[in-house]
Amino acid sequence: MKKTGIFYHEIIGKKADPLAREVEAGFRILEKENLFAEPNIFLFESQPVEEELILQIHPKHRIEEVKRMGYYEVSLYSIGGLVKATEKVLNREIDNALVLLGAGGHHAHRDWAWGGCYFNTDAIPIEYARERFGTRKFAIVDTDTHHADGTRDIFKADEEVLHICYCQSFGYNYWGYNYGSRIETKTKVCFPQANSDEEFIERLEKEVPPRITDFKPELIYWVCGMDTHKHGYGTKKLTEACYPELAKIIKKVTDEVCSSKLIARTGCNIPGYPSAVEYIIPRLVDCLAELNKYI
Q1: Residue 138 needs a FRET pair 20 to 30 A away by CA distance; which of 131, 172, 220, 255 works?
Q2: How far is CA 77 from CA 44, 146, 153, in A?
Q3: Is the pLDDT of residue 174 over 90?
Q4: Model confidence band, residue 170 (pLDDT cutoffs 50, 70, 90)
Q5: Which residues of 213-245 are buried (b: 16+ CB within 10 A; e: fewer)?
């Protein structure tokens, strides 16, 4: 079994962006299923990240804008959970982690953002890992519906970050990104979204592990967007049964390539459908921790 950390704070659930409003349900189901009683699952209370770390990615005026929007506090706690998970995985206190977020981040550019995102939840923990631990190579696997334009923009010239992004709506330009050309460089890859559970599982297994194996990252982040769910606001093509299967594929290659150092994050973004979140979240934890409780 693996030692798995769960990162959450009550503020994340109570003050979540509307797109992440089911995140509290995601946490409560772990309590209801008694998963925190398992000896290899550890609950950590997310703490707010220091503004100084945000300033390494975003300018001061962007911080002031987010404060005026009303999502500053939940963003601090969400990113704080990712930073703490990064620390505990890299110092090997835990093997892997699931971080529950109340605000998104992959649409956050350095000085602007959209889509329920405020600060970049990929760039800030990576900056922390580089500064604190000297870790250099990272892989980000983003299975959310939408193109992670903020993350791609920040890391577009960084050859030590492998960014694999599944994107809806190939074929038109969106803020300067040409979806019609499956953006393909050595370290920056986009794939179109799938139309069914079976297609996504089959394609993820073919498209992701070989690239991660070749790249050899020291740490992997998985952006587990749930807007692809049939009741979501994205592709609406997947059922809740798909996400644990994606987790198995990503975890397996992480175990093989970088000693299990995987940090999964989600805002449980299927607003209005807590039952789907309540199915998915315990099974993600089950996979990460190797409990085999839901076979």
Answers
A1: 172
A2: 12, 24, 24
A3: no
A4: very low
A5: eebebbbbbbbbbbbbbebbbbbebbebebbbb
Asked whether 81 and 5 are in contact (CB, 8 A), the reply is no
- For residue 43, the surrounding DSSP H or E stretch is strand 41-45
DSSP conformational letter for 108: -
| Domains delineated in the chain | 4-289 (3.40.800.20)
Torsion angles phi and psi, residue 33, rounded to 5: -80, 0
* Phi, psi for residue 164 in degrees, rounded to 5: -110, 120
Four-residue CA torsion sign, 279, 281, 282, 283: positive
For helices 72-90 and 123-133, give the axis angle rounded to 10 degrees.
40
How many residues make up the chain in this entry? 295
CA torsion through residues 101, 236, 194, 166, sign: negative
2-17 burial string, b = 16+ CB within 10 Å, else e? bbbbbbbbebbbebbb
Which residues make beta-bridge pairs with 41? 4
Q: Buried b vs exposed e over 98-124: b needs ≥16 C-beta within 10 Å? A: bbbbbbbbbbbbeeebebbbbbbbbbb
* Amino acid, single-letter form, for residue 247: A
Question: Which of 113, 112, 139, 108 is closest to 124 using CA atoms?
Answer: 108
pLDDT at residue 14 tops 90: yes
Q: Is the pLDDT of residue 183 over 90?
A: no
HSE (side-chain half, CA atoms, 13 Å) at 108: 24
